[in-house]
Automatic annotation (TrEMBL):
InterPro entries: AAA_lid_NorR, Homeodomain-like_sf, HTH_Fis, P-loop_NTPase, Sigma_54_int, Sigma_54_int_dom_CS. It comes from marine metagenome. GO terms for molecular function: ATP binding; sequence-specific DNA binding. Keywords: ATP-binding, Nucleotide-binding, Transcription, Transcription regulation. This is Sigma-54 factor interaction domain-containing protein. Pfam families: AAA_lid_14, HTH_8. SUPFAM superfamilies: Homeodomain-like, P-loop containing nucleoside triphosphate hydrolases.
């Protein structure tokens, strides 16, 4: 009870309800103990108790101006653990970019950004190009400078050939930035990766 009550639930009682409901469903003896608490909550609690300011909750409470690489890295690992996804590597360039972005004092936007990257990764490696453009004005500016280039799509081409041509041209226009390409094509990043693989696009 102490651990659940001390966890910061981002003002969302529904998340607490889902957590407790999951613990009840998973319990085999109808007795809820410390081991039944989700790992990401125990991880945050251990960090708080040990005095290590490296949990997701710590990052959410920290001023954007005082974010550190260690804090953001720990936030990524904590959220990855929460979603059951393995993040094998986080580039230093990504950490520096996330710290440099002006979150306007709203680190919940940072949390949303990181969660989107974690849920979209297919390799377990997070790079700067994985930052969703809507969270990075610099990325949006680059997108607006992409411009419109003619694409050779002719009557008689199959849908597969036309789509392959359009994806290849958009990737080239975006300097192979897949996040930006997916945004322009209005498709999900996972869908783009699948089509690149299916169409053998280099």
């Amino acid at each position: 009870l102490e651990m659940l009550s001390s966890y910061h639930w981002p003002g969302n009682i529904r998340e607490l309800e889902n957590c407790v409901e999951g613990m009840i469903v998973m319990s085999s003896d109808h007795v809820l103990e410390l081991d039944d608490v989700p790992e990401y909550i125990r991880h945050a609690h251990r960090a708080t108790v040990s005095g290590a300011d490296i949990s997701t909750q710590s990052a959410l409470r920290t001023s954007s101006q005082h974010l550190s690489s260690d804090l953001v890295r720990a936030m990524i690992q904590s959220l990855a653990m929460q979603h059951g996804i393995t993040v094998r590597r986080v580039s230093d360039a990504l950490l520096h970019r996330l710290i440099a972005i002006d979150w306007a004092g709203n680190n919940y936007s940072l949390k949303q950004c990181i969660e989107m990257m974690i849920l979209m990764t297919e390799t377990g490696v997070l790079e700067t190009e994985d930052i969703p453009p809507e969270f990075d004005r610099q990325e949006e500016a680059a997108s607006s400078d992409t411009g419109h280039r003619p694409v050779d799509i002719r009557v008689g081409m199959t849908m597969e050939d036309a789509e392959r041509t359009l994806i290849r041209a958009t990737l080239a226009s975006c300097d192979n930035n897949k996040t930006q390409t997916a945004r322009i094509l209005n498709i999900g990043l996972r869908t783009l990766f699948r089509k690149i693989k299916d169409y053998g696009i280099q």
